[in-house]
């Protein structure tokens, strides 16, 4: 019976040479075997590119002083600035109270910079959106620094502004980057004023959710 089954296998399988037929006859169970390849678990995270990128540590692109800043306490009150004589001091041939002002509004999703005179008349306006940044890229510190360089270069070239004051409002990601960009654009910053609104009596929070 075994001989008849082997003859049936030899006649049904079209092998080109006799060596392969002899190997099959020698091991008839080889027809029912299958090679199994197992991938190592170490490379399982590479299959999902999104999961692999989430596990990688993000590159820190914050500037110095963006998250925290060290402030030296003034031991001598004579060195405090400003004082009562500050508005009448002269910086680059212009009184302090008549210097142009760069207003930086650092929002969560955008950074808007305007340049006005001491009377409040706005002469230049720039934002991350007008400088070519779209969607989530407007909220980066690189976009804020590029916007500050653009408006400072324009103010220096068209209006001849070299010395100015800076007024910052908001706690967005482009807060410190915009100030650094104004310096890189050639503006001599005399003073920096933080005009961020602080609510000492905020509205009552919502009640706790019941589950």
UniProtKB/TrEMBL annotation:
This is Ribosomal protein S11. The keyword rRNA-binding does not apply. One of its GO terms (cellular component) is ribonucleoprotein complex. The keyword Nuclease does not apply. Belongs to the universal ribosomal protein uS11 family. Keywords: Ribonucleoprotein, Ribosomal protein. It holds the Pfam family Ribosomal_S11. InterPro entries: Ribosomal_uS11, Ribosomal_uS11_sf.
